Amino acid sequence: ENESLVKKAKEASDDLEAKQAKLENLENDKNETLKQFELLKVESKAEIESFKLREEALRTEIAHGVDALKSVEDKVDATEAEMKKISDEHIQSTAALTTKITEL
How is residue 1 annotated by DSSP? Predict the structure, then answer.
């Protein structure tokens, strides 16, 4: 009977050691997973910050493009106005010359 109790105590002790080892492995796995999670959070935050910076750079680039387009549109408008003025002057000159030629 004493031998039986010793055997059961040994089995219980071995079982407890196995469960403690398994618990330590699970704790190690949990800690490793938490480290990976934290690393992913840091990387995600860095990527988000990078995307925000890129977005701001693109917004600035678009704003410069809009400004450049407006400048070109203004130049086109000014050129068209100048061309109309020249055309009107040409029509008036042609009419005046035609009148003088007719008078001669």
Answer: -
Residue 55, CB-side half-sphere exposure with 13 Å CA sphere: 6
DSSP 8-state secondary structure symbol assigned to residue 104: -
Tell me, what amino acid is at 47? E
Which residues have C-beta within 8 Å of that of residue 20, sequence separation ≥ 6?
A: none
Q: How wide is the angle at C-alpha 80 spanned by C-alphas 79 and 84, nearest 5°?
A: 115
- What is the tens place of the pLDDT at every residue in 71-98? 999 999 999 999 999 999 999 999 999 9
pTM above 0.85, yes or no: no
Which is it for the CA torsion 88, 89, 90, 96, positive or negative?
Answer: positive
The Cα–Cα gap between 43 and 57 comes to 21
